[in-house]
Amino acid sequence: MDMIATTMTREDVTAMIIQAKKQGGLTWEGIAESIGMSPVWTHSAAMGMNAMPSDKADALVSTLGLAPEASAILQESPTKIWEQTVPTDPCIYRFYEIVGVYGPTLKALIHEKFGDGIMSAIDFDMTVSRVENPKGDRVKVEMSGKYLAYNCW
Amino acid sequence: MDMIATTMTREDVTAMIIQAKKQGGLTWEGIAESIGMSPVWTHSAAMGMNAMPSDKADALVSTLGLAPEASAILQESPTKIWEQTVPTDPCIYRFYEIVGVYGPTLKALIHEKFGDGIMSAIDFDMTVSRVENPKGDRVKVEMSGKYLAYNCW
Amino acid sequence: MDMIATTMTREDVTAMIIQAKKQGGLTWEGIAESIGMSPVWTHSAAMGMNAMPSDKADALVSTLGLAPEASAILQESPTKIWEQTVPTDPCIYRFYEIVGVYGPTLKALIHEKFGDGIMSAIDFDMTVSRVENPKGDRVKVEMSGKYLAYNCW
Amino acid sequence: MDMIATTMTREDVTAMIIQAKKQGGLTWEGIAESIGMSPVWTHSAAMGMNAMPSDKADALVSTLGLAPEASAILQESPTKIWEQTVPTDPCIYRFYEIVGVYGPTLKALIHEKFGDGIMSAIDFDMTVSRVENPKGDRVKVEMSGKYLAYNCW
Amino acid sequence: MDMIATTMTREDVTAMIIQAKKQGGLTWEGIAESIGMSPVWTHSAAMGMNAMPSDKADALVSTLGLAPEASAILQESPTKIWEQTVPTDPCIYRFYEIVGVYGPTLKALIHEKFGDGIMSAIDFDMTVSRVENPKGDRVKVEMSGKYLAYNCW
Amino acid sequence: MDMIATTMTREDVTAMIIQAKKQGGLTWEGIAESIGMSPVWTHSAAMGMNAMPSDKADALVSTLGLAPEASAILQESPTKIWEQTVPTDPCIYRFYEIVGVYGPTLKALIHEKFGDGIMSAIDFDMTVSRVENPKGDRVKVEMSGKYLAYNCW
Amino acid sequence: MDMIATTMTREDVTAMIIQAKKQGGLTWEGIAESIGMSPVWTHSAAMGMNAMPSDKADALVSTLGLAPEASAILQESPTKIWEQTVPTDPCIYRFYEIVGVYGPTLKALIHEKFGDGIMSAIDFDMTVSRVENPKGDRVKVEMSGKYLAYNCW
Amino acid sequence: MDMIATTMTREDVTAMIIQAKKQGGLTWEGIAESIGMSPVWTHSAAMGMNAMPSDKADALVSTLGLAPEASAILQESPTKIWEQTVPTDPCIYRFYEIVGVYGPTLKALIHEKFGDGIMSAIDFDMTVSRVENPKGDRVKVEMSGKYLAYNCW
Amino acid sequence: MDMIATTMTREDVTAMIIQAKKQGGLTWEGIAESIGMSPVWTHSAAMGMNAMPSDKADALVSTLGLAPEASAILQESPTKIWEQTVPTDPCIYRFYEIVGVYGPTLKALIHEKFGDGIMSAIDFDMTVSRVENPKGDRVKVEMSGKYLAYNCW
Amino acid sequence: MDMIATTMTREDVTAMIIQAKKQGGLTWEGIAESIGMSPVWTHSAAMGMNAMPSDKADALVSTLGLAPEASAILQESPTKIWEQTVPTDPCIYRFYEIVGVYGPTLKALIHEKFGDGIMSAIDFDMTVSRVENPKGDRVKVEMSGKYLAYNCW
Predict the structure, then answer these.
(1) CATH, range F90-149
(2) Whether pLDDT at G62 is above 90
(3) Which residue of D97, G43, G131, I76 lies most exposed, with the fewest beta carbons within 10 A?
(4) H with I: 3 or more CB pairs under 8 Å?
């Protein structure tokens, strides 16, 4: 089965990106800038949680000096899998907790402002930034998703 | 056990608030404004997911014409419980999905911008707003939480 | 807490609809026709899994002779909850099984025909019909949902 | 244990098919057409979720230039396993959500149109197609399964 | 909500059947015989796990002297729910264990005798009997279900 | 750790049996006959879900031409493990469904015919056969287990 | 549904036994002795985890002065249900822990002493006693269950 | 990482013990006797569920002719892990069932004989023996654990 | 079943204590002091997670003016149940997180300081205190449990 | 993929630390002292549950004679994962049990002493020590975390 064993996988590409980032002393912000995209989306696509358009995949391969066949893999539609129903990492868990505590509130206010519907997680973008504050700097997360109304038929 | 049966519970207070809101034709935005707080926090405290300072609890009781003993209950430190590990309501699920898909990205960018630590979900605030867009209006969610660095000792 | 105890709930409205349907010897198809909507959507809204526009809610109340306050409840944005992660009823389980067996196929073909994205379950409609067949009649289920492309930003 | 290590598995065959599809720049629709079957069934059998009749297995091996012993493996009755009780991939999750939200409706309407029974997921077929729409193209999924009545004995 | 509170439910009918059986000193075998059906099916329908044809429902109501409105309820298509994913009662658990230990064997032998398909659990019947044996009497369970072949399309 | 790496495991023996069966074009029924046992038990022991007496293990090794050390492994008392609490394969799931739907019925009828106790899943045997039927052939499964009465002490 | 509401349940009988035990200042050991059975079995049957033969049920009713209809209920074959897959009470958890830590050891030694089989949990008895010990008294639990050999057929 | 790859693990030591036992035609009882410990404890420590004192570890290494570095590993404090919350192997499951059925009884009798507390699973020992019986030999399991009273402070 | 309905339960006693505490404007620290015990233990026993010695139960009844029969209930050995395997309340979750992150460290250091064993959670006490700190006051939790060595036998 | 295969991982570094500790006959207390940190934090960082500042990572590498590239890995922000929702190891389980039994008490007393908020698990430190006691030495665990008040906005 040699033919199969030598095929490059998404996990390989992710590992190569992380290694290139370390060796080049790069940041996600820098990598994102070099391909003209946002850091959130760039990191997410590098981790295999989003597919890249071909020009962005080529740009990433070129920027980081990856093997050329990595570009095709970065363009594939990934199957998004997370293993932990409740994430254990404290940094990620806090966001899970926010969904648990404020989920009904998000639903109520979307309903109040828009009607019966949801915020899309597909036609969606997000930024993370640092806000200086004398009592301790704050993490700011801004999410924006298209409002989708329930259909009646 | 009559003495116990007649005690007002948090669930009673939540139900009374929802009924008063309906009967008065109010909005969460309006209720929040009348007590000088944000809509997210006001809805959350009304649902029993946050405790109110005494002046805010009194203001809510007065605004909505609730029974006076409701104020003390609104000031209690609630035990925050959500029954569904994975929320089934589509509107809330989408936020769960965002945590699953973008959780590792949030962690990586917080690390890049701040160091090894987390965004607090306690020293935390959030807003929900509507952004007009010719391709369809968008839901904007802004979260802000204090950065907490891991301790070394 | 008398004030609260006498409030009508969604469960009450669902029960009243089912009772009126039985007593009137009605069908879902007939009820749907009388309010000018599809049977799938009508049953779903009657069960509390979709919100009704006000004219349709009024029409249903009038058709079935429900208490007038039921209309407001039918218009509320419901919190959609299903208790069983894996449904045990054999009729519903078969659809769960189809998602398990053919889920990756649905994903692959949506990808092939549209690109990286999903079928919306919100901007969505569905019909159920009976197709005569000499080897045994068949159930036909047709789903239609708007294609949503993943955002790149 | 060399004898065992060199045995071809279903996972190997699936990997070989995907590799041949990539290298040949093929589509599932094209592969299906070349063996005279539907794209849904063809993809599903290629993924190891359905068994192929011998002529179709031979045709696939020939079309894609696979190793000859792959044909026998494609004809085996596969054990259908999905790891995730609740699928995390957003594209597949939406179908799970549809089963959760509309499962009781599907049951009620099958009952109304046929009597007490189910739609078979075995004597079953499905198509996926793209429907143009000025408000955004739509995914259309058509399922057809034999009605099976419960036995009384 | 008086109208609703007095509605008879399936749980009520099941409870009435059990009470009538106790008071009359009856057996499931005897009840089944009096309505001309098998004991397995009769018990299952009495527990709300199968729907009765109208003549059998009327016969049961008449035999046991139930309230007349029970007949309509016995004819409804029940939603089959079992709460325990793994049954704890030792008598039921042993059957779960048999499925765990011999499930792959049942699959392999059905495949060998019929081809790629399943035994239907809908077009299905079952008997339970006692077989005398000098080493200790034995429980005999006989299941019969229609073979369903997977569809290719 | 070479010494360990070359030890034959149960998984190896199962794989060798399946390979020998394929290469010899054998059936489970034929293999069972050649060692003088039933097909259900033979398949189950081959899969590592039952231990073989030494003469049967030797007979199987001889019939299939397995490596001689496989006999000792076939005689070991296996630890019976199934990974899926709810089996996903449709053929096996149908039996799980039967336990869910008819479990309480099996319990009630065993109680009625024997008293308070269970059917043993250890002192147990089972057959699978094909029954011709003009409406479609049927799978017949016959289980027989010793009745065990609960002890009182 | 008055007829149903006044039916005595197993939970009622258990509650009546506990109340009678408290009011009479009795012990389980004393109650067991008065009906001529062991304390383990007596407590278990009183909790609804075992069925009583009629003479023992009558004796318990007489000893504790229960309502006469309790005897029939104590003789019913109970459905044994425990809610917690992993028990949280520390006293019960320790036994669960023993099964986790020593389960494979129990299996290995039963195999060594008897052959391939199990210890019955049905033809089973158990005692609990106190053993004085200068370093702190010890709980002694003795279990005895019939050995059951796996069947070969 | 060669240095790491050649390190002996607990799993290696367990595998070596099992291999030595097979090759020597030994029993757990015999091995236990040769190191002057009980069979339950000896098997448990060999499986990595208990740590051995150094003299016993040396004795085991010497008795079975294991590699000398195995002794240090046998003396390590193991992390006790069992993968299955509910064990599937029938022999082990029966003990889980006993905890489910009789857990509340064990708690009640410990309370009656000692007061509010538990039986330790740490300061604990256990034996397994065979008791001849004309109706079928019985497995006898004797557990002894120190009583620990809850602290009040 | 009037006799049963009027029996006081642990839940009643807990509710009465909370009500008395509120009405009297008391603190857990004050209540604990008045019965001469620690706040942690007093709260825990009041919640039904520990049993009280008779003098402490009488003291609590007298201090809070509870109904006299509450004393006997406070002395019963409670069955300790927590519903949430993973606690959702953020204040309690943080302690769960500490066990997840530092559990292996606690084990390693107990092993290093004592040998192979555990810290008892039964012969155990705990205090909670407030420590002033210019960067923000700190919660201090001190746990003390008897070391228990694993038995070798 | 050779480039990837030779990359050092966190698991490798943890394994190297454990091996160096064994070979050097060191203790966690000794290692901690040599880098000027506490044993709890040092062990936790060595296990990959905390990130090290660069000077401490270099000190550890130097003290234990690790490969130089280990230092960079020890400084990375680790993703904290624990596999077992309920830990099975008895030593760790006891701490889980304490959270289950005393969690509501910890919450109530933090509320009483500070107000509505939590103890941080991030700005957190812990010590483990041995306290001599004539009745048996005790494990003392001291936790200290910054109090964080819920935000109102």
Answers:
(1) 3.30.1160.10
(2) yes
(3) G131
(4) yes
